[in-house]
Design goal:
This protein has 694 residues and is of the alpha/beta class. The chain contains 26 helices and 22 strands.
Length: 694
């Protein structure tokens, strides 16, 4: 059963108001010291924070990664001094010196909270709307892990996954369209352990929001299947505490608590104004605010009794110790399940994964099938989803096109009570129908990855990566293992025309730091791409896959594929026993084009060409200088071939690019290839032209 206790009493010597004022003082002091930041939101949400962090949140400041902790997300991340104040006051390793260095180079108190940078921060927030969406992913992960691992034997309840996900969010989060996607899915999935507290202060950067934000938030959330509490007075910590307790007792749906607040609460001249939102209060206004709050202490000074009231270390240790005892009993009863739970929460792959990966690549090489790389992806997934129960798939209403489903991943469904529907073997669904919600899918996957226990992947068309781009960027920034399956990767999709034909997308995705981008050319390369993506524990991956069938490219060795580029064919393989006079670099579907051009050049012009397949430029770029030189030898002219923007290829010292710097057209794929010059003859002519200039 979930913890439904109403409260842990605040230390009687210190009032809730005093605890809240400590947050307000730290927030305005830090923003003033930095001469930059957002004091209004922390000052307005301080009482809400007292109710949640002081009375409900189960966490352990001495072990921020405790598996069964509640998750807290500050979706309106510009109010970062709220979470920094809370982490400092409750006992995390965030000393007062870090608050004094707010927004300064090298500090742990960046302008917006960053996961992995500051202890206790669960996700990087700032781009509004993504925090609440990450929280949906976290709550989903909790629900699925609970369904998979919790057990009951007779009257003994072995519950090891049982925690809540809490979100603070503001008007901006609800204005962003992604919040609609996330809220709808949370309601559909009946995520009853997701509790959102809405800081309803009616102010954004441009002022009072009423001229441009007239949504009836309560009705909107109710329409999406949420429980709605409020509006309540967000400055009444007792009222907020009772609302949270009520929300924790809801077993049928997520809950939103609408808290009416005053931005910049306590500031005589800045409260309820846009000026409180994103600029320091100023020395004089801070002096007046201290007087108004009755806070007589110097900047960054917090009395010992206030620290004692906030200190959560002992309570956190006790909560974790209680869970450890439960887990010990669970481990005794279910040793293999316990071992699996620990492995998955650590993000470790099974010990046999390396062999599974080799077997998948060898099987693809042996069969040498002619299939679209999207189908090659599904073939690889059949192997990997069977071997890795943590793989959680999905698609943005394109399952039949993305081919992200497998025999091991039945569709995820929930019954009317909100429980995960299981098949006859007791397995819950592992493939999510996200609906037409690319951005929501991407940010939910980030939340799933951040929670732990799953490796999420999801599919859509490559051209729609534009919708989800900022969530992809956030995954890269947060170093999360999230895998994006992007199919229909070029003009090769044909008749749907330029709206659906990706041109600039591969190049633009490669520009995102820490994102691996793979565009495999056959089944073996696709299997290796998947294996590398799964091994990438600290970076996301984008797989760019074709709609059209691709013949298998014969190869003597599979070892170098994982390095992102390798020598696929030397001149000797087309009958020329001499050194290469040129190198053709190709990716994806264009590898076959390069091989045909190589053959044409050899037979008709006796020109010796090396063909290099480069399925991942980003992976190749991380290799040693010696390996790069072995693939792309110095002094040998290079020509790149890819059905997309040409700009990214010049860094490889190419003399020419057969590419596409315009939009496509609507026509059958073979017609388009001829029209845009993606033919063996044109590639061969390009190589000859380059050699003629030497």
């Amino acid at each position: 059963m979930s913890d439904t206790s109403t409260s842990t009493p605040i230390a009687p010597a210190v009032s809730a108001q005093t605890q809240a004022n400590a947050i307000r003082a730290l927030a305005m002091d830090a923003v003033q010291a930095a001469n930059s930041g957002h004091p209004g939101a922390p000052m307005g949400m301080a009482d809400m924070a007292v109710a949640l962090w002081g009375r409900h949140l189960r966490h352990n400041p001495t072990n921020p990664q405790w598996a069964n902790r509640d998750r807290f997300v500050l979706s309106n991340g510009h109010g970062s001094m709220l979470i920094y104040s809370l982490l400092h006051l409750t006992g995390y390793k965030l000393p007062i010196g870090e608050l004094k260095n707010f927004r300064q180079l090298g500090s742990k108190t960046a302008g917006h909270p960053e996961v992995g940078h500051t202890p206790g921060v669960e996700t990087t927030t700032g781009p509004l709307g993504q925090g609440i969406t990450n929280a949906v992913g976290m709550a989903l992960a909790e629900k699925l892990l609970a369904s998979e691992f919790n057990r009951k034997v007779g009257d003994v309840d072995h519950t090891i996954v049982d925690h809540h996900t809490y979100v603070f969010m503001g008007d901006g989060c609800l204005m962003e369209g992604i919040s609609h996607e996330a809220v709808a899915l949370a309601g559909a999935w009946k995520l009853n352990k997701l509790i959102a507290l809405y800081d309803d202060n009616g102010i954004s950067i441009d002022g009072q929001v009423t001229p441009w934000f007239i949504d009836n938030t309560a009705l909107r959330f109710a329409a999406c299947g949420w429980n709605v509490i409020g509006p309540i007075d967000g400055h009444d910590a007792e009222a907020v505490e009772r609302a949270i307790a009520d929300a924790k007792n809801k077993a049928d749906a997520p809950t939103i608590i609408i808290c009416k607040t005053h931005i910049g609460k306590g500031s005589p001249n800045r409260a309820n104004t846009a000026k409180a939102h994103g600029e320091p209060l100023g020395a004089e206004e801070i002096k007046l605010t201290r007087e108004a709050l009755g806070w007589t202490h110097a900047p960054f000074a917090v009395p010992k009794d206030v620290y004692a009231a906030w200190d959560a270390k002992d309570a956190g240790k006790a909560a974790e110790a209680d869970w450890n005892a439960k887990f010990a009993a669970y481990k005794a009863a279910f040793p293999e399940l316990a071992k699996e739970f620990v492995r998955r929460m650590k993000g470790e792959l099974p010990k046999n994964f390396a062999q599974v990966a080799v077997d998948a690549a060898v099987a693809a090489h042996t069969k040498a099938e002619t299939v679209a790389s999207r189908k090659a992806s599904q073939l690889a997934l059949e192997i990997f989803t069977a071997a890795l129960p943590e793989l959680l798939g999905g698609s943005a209403d394109l399952t039949g096109s993305n081919l992200t489903n497998t025999k091991s991943t039945p569709s995820l469904r929930f019954n009317l009570a909100g429980d995960v529907v299981k098949n006859e073997q007791g397995q819950g669904g592992r493939h999510i129908n996200y609906g037409v919600r690319e951005f929501g899918m991407a940010a939910i996957m980030n939340g799933v990855a951040l929670h732990g226990g799953f490796i999420p992947y999801g599919g859509t068309f490559l051209t729609f990566s534009d919708y989800s781009r900022n969530a992809i960027r956030m995954a890269a920034l947060m170093k999360q293992r999230v895998i994006h399956v992007f199919t229909h990767d070029s003009i090769g999709l044909g008749e749907d025309g330029p709206t659906h034909q990706s041109v600039e997308h591969a190049a633009s995705l490669r520009l995102i730091p820490n994102l691996d981008v793979w565009r495999p050319g056959d089944t073996a390369e696709t299997a290796v791409a998947w294996a590398v993506a799964l091994e990438n524990a600290s970076r996301p991956t984008a797989l760019l896959l074709s709609r059209q069938n691709l013949p298998y490219a014969p190869k003597s060795d599979l070892g170098d594929i994982s390095k992102g580029a390798y020598v696929l064919a030397e001149p000797s393989e087309v009958g020329l026993k001499k050194k290469a006079q040129a190198v053709i670099i190709a990716t994806g579907s264009e590898v076959q084009l390069a091989l045909k051009a190589q053959e044409l050049l050899a037979k008709e012009f006796k020109i010796a060409v090396r063909v290099v397949s480069m399925p991942s430029t980003t992976t190749f770029d991380r290799q040693s200088a010696a390996f790069k030189a072995s693939v792309l030898p110095a002094g040998v002219p290079r020509v790149a071939v890819e059905m997309g923007s040409t700009d990214g290829w010049w860094k490889y010292g190419v003399a020419a690019v057969v590419g596409l710097d315009t939009y496509g057209e609507s026509a059958p794929a073979p017609v388009l290839f001829e029209h845009f010059g993606f033919t063996p003859a044109n590639v061969a002519d390009t190589v000859r032209a380059v050699l003629a200039k030497r």
